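INFO  loader      accepted 1 record
INFO  loader      residues=409
INFO  predictor   begin
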Amino acid sequence: MTRISTNQIFDRSIDAITRNQGDLSDIQQQLSSGKKLLRPSDDPVGAAQVVRLTEELDKITQYQRNNDLLQNSLEQEEVVLQNINNALDRARVLMIQSGNGVYDKTDLQAIGIEIGSIRDEVFGLMNTQNSNGEYIFAGYQSQTQAFSFDPSSTGKKYTFSGDDGVKRIQVSDAVSIQSNSSGKSVFEDVLARFNVSITAQAGTTSVDSRISEQAAFDRFFTQNYDAVTPANNDYRATILAGNQIQIDNIGLGTTVDTLSFESGQPFVFEGIEFTVSGGVGDSFDFELNEPEKNNVAETLNQFFEALNDESLSDADFQESIADALVALDNGSKSLANATSSLGGRINVAQSVLESNLDLEIAHKSARSVIEDVDYAEAVSELSKQETALQAAQATFSRVTGLTLFDFIR
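INFO  predictor   done
INFO  writer      dumping C-alpha cells
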C-alpha cells in the first residue's frame, strides 16, 4: 500500500491546476490571436514551414513593388516616345510641303519657324526626367542630361552625352525586365540617308549625280558597302564604244554592270542617276559614302538650317528635303521598334504580376492551414479545458479538506 504525504497531495493538485490553467491560457491566446502556433515547440515542422512561406510572401511583396515601379517607368517612356513620334509626323508633313515649288522664301521661313519649334520639343522630350530627377534616356549616366546642344559647333550641334547602359528590375525569382531604353539605341544610332560622291574625272567634261530611286540604292548600298575594306567601295565608270558605259568595282577588279549611254543624257545605275558629258575612253570615279548616323533632333536642325539658307540652290534644297525625309523615316522606324519592345516588356511585367498574385494566394492559403486557428475546434477545446480546470480545482478543495480530525468527528 502506497502512502502519500500531505505535501505530495498538495503538489499534485497544484500541478494539475497549473497545467490546466496553462492549457486554458493557450486556447484563449489562440482564439484572441487567430494563430494556433504560439511558439515553435507547438509544431516544429509546421513552424519551419511558416517561416519559409512568410519569407516567400515577403519576397513576393517586394517583387510587386518592383513591378509597380517598372510599369510606371515603362508607361512614362511609352508616352514620351508617342509624343516624339507625333512631332516627327508633323515635321514630315512640313518637309513634304516645303518641296512645293510655289512656296517662296517667306513661306519656307515660316515652315522653318515651326520646324524649329518641333526640334526644340523633341530635344526636350529626349531629355525627359523621371520623378527621381533621372534622365530616362541617358543609360547608366542618368544624373547627366542625355542629349546636349552646342550652338557653336561646326559639326553636329545635338549630341548624345549618356551611354548605352540599360537597367533591369527583378520582378520574380527568375525574371528581371529592362526598365529603360538608352537614347543611343533609340535616337542616336539612326542611319542618315545613304549617298555617293564623285571622287575623280578623266577626260569627262562634266558629271552630275543624284539618288533618283532611294529604295533601289539603299538595297545596293546595304548589299555592297564594305566597312572593312574601303577600297571595295570605289567604282569607276568608263565610256565604251557602241554607246555603252561600263561600271567596275576598283577594289575588287570586277565589272559590275554595262549600261546604255548617251553623252549629256542621264542614265541610272542601282538607283543613282548620272548625267555625263564625254566620249569613248573617258571615265569618272565614284564611291559609296560611309554611313552616317544622326539623332532626330540633329536631323530637324539640319533641315531648319536649310530652310533658312537663302544661298541654297533649288537642287541642293531638294537634296536637303530628301536627306531629311529618309533620316526622319529611319528615326520613326527606330521609335517604332523601341515602342514595340516597350509593349513586350509591359506585357511580360503584367504576366509576372498575375503569376505572383497567384503564388501569393497559394502561399497564404498554405500558411493559413498550418498556423491559423480552427475556431470551432478551439472553442470546443476551451470549454473542455474550463471543465478540466474546474474539476481540478474542486478536487483540490475536497482532497485538502480531508484530515484525521474529520474522521474523529
